[in-house]
Amino acid sequence: MSSEKAFQDYYAPAFSHCYGCGPSNEHGLHIKSYWLDKEKKETFARYTPKPWHTGGYPENVYGGLIAALLDCHGNGTALAAGYMHEGRAMDSEPALRYVTGNLTLNFKKPTPIDGELEMRAKITEVTDKKVVMEVSLLAHGQVTVDGSMVCVRLPATRPDASRAAA
Amino acid sequence: MSSEKAFQDYYAPAFSHCYGCGPSNEHGLHIKSYWLDKEKKETFARYTPKPWHTGGYPENVYGGLIAALLDCHGNGTALAAGYMHEGRAMDSEPALRYVTGNLTLNFKKPTPIDGELEMRAKITEVTDKKVVMEVSLLAHGQVTVDGSMVCVRLPATRPDASRAAA
To answer: What torsion, rounded to 10 degrees, do the Cα atoms A20, A69, B7, B134 define?
Structure first.
C-alpha cells in the first residue's frame, strides 16, 4: 500500500491546493484515496481526527470534518473513475479534476473521535461530465454516516492545468 | 449587532466544544449565528475564509469548509428554533442541543475565497424532535451553494448538559 500512489497525488499543480486533499497545501488535511476493489469500483481513504475536531459532544467528531472527508474522498474517487472511463492512465494528459456538484449525507450514528476513520465510496455512474457515487464513513468498523455525491468534471482550459506547467 | 449574543454563545458547557462553532474550542472556527428576520424565521452568519482554505482551484473555497459552515450555522439555527418552539428564552433550562441528521448541498457556482461569506438558513419545520431548514451560502451577495438540513434534538440526559455544571 505504501508504494501505491494516492489519487490526489495525480492532481496537476493548479488542482493541488485543496485544503482537504491538495498535496501542495501545507496547512491541509492531505486526504489520500485508493482503490479498495477496482472490479467493484469501490475506493477508500483513512483519516485520524485531531483532538480538537470535537463535535456536539466532546467524544464525537464534528459534522463539518465528516463532510469535508467525504467530499474530498469523493472528488478523488471521481478522478480515478474519470481516467478509467476514458481508458487512460492517471498521469496522462489532459489532467482531469472534479468538484462537488451535490453532497447528500445522512448522519446515522455519532462518530467517535477516539480512532481512525475510514471513508468509502462506490461509483455508480460515470459520464463525460460527471461521476455519481454512494459514500459512507466508518468508525471502529461501523457505518456512522452514509449518503451520495455527484462530482462534476472541470473543463481543462486553464494554462496551468497541465502538469507541464509545474 | 455587537451587543447581541450569538446562538452558539447559549450552548451549555458540554455542547460548546464543536470545532466549527463551540465557544470553548480554542482551535475552532467560532461560527456565530444570529436572527436575520425572526418573523420570517431566517438566520445568518458570516465567516471570512483563511488563505489556506483553497479548493479545486486556488481562487475558490474548498467544499469541506462550505459544508462545515452551513452545518454549524444550521445547528445554531436549530437551537434558536427549538427554544422559540417551546416558547422559552435561550438561556433557560433544560439546555437544548441539535446535531445534524441530514445535510444536502448543491454547489451551484464556485465560491470565491477573496472575501467574507454569508451563511443563511430559513426554518421550514419545527417539531419536538427536529428542525428542518433551507440553507444557502452567499459570496459577494450571490448564492453559490444551496440545500437543506434536518437537525435532530439531542436528549438532555447528561449531567454536564446543564449550565449549572459549568
So the answer is: 110
**Tens of pLDDT, residues B23-37:** 888 889 999 999 999
Classified as helix, coil or strand, B115 is coil
DSSP string, B2-57: TTSPPGGGG--GGG---TTT-TT-TTS----EEEEETTTTEEEEEEPPPTT-B-SS
CATH of domain A7-165: 3.10.129.10
Partners of B63 on chain A (C-beta within 8 Å) are 20, 68, 71-72, 75, 99-100, 103
CB atoms within 10 A of CB B88: 13
What are the domain boundaries of chain B? 7-165
DSSP character string of A78-114: HHHHHHHHTT--TTPSSPP-EEEEEEEEEE-S--BSS
- The ipTM assigned to this model is 0.92
DSSP letter at A162 equals: S
CA distance B69 to A73: 19
DSSP state of B77: H
| pTM as predicted | 0.93
Judged by CB atoms closer than 8 Å, whether chains meet at B57 and A28 is answered as no
List, run by run, the mean pLDDT of 10-residue segments along chain A (166 residues): 81 87 89 96 97 90 95 96 96 92 97 97 97 98 98 77 56
**Phi, psi (deg, nearest 5) at residue B63:** -60, -35
Per-residue pLDDT, B1 = 46
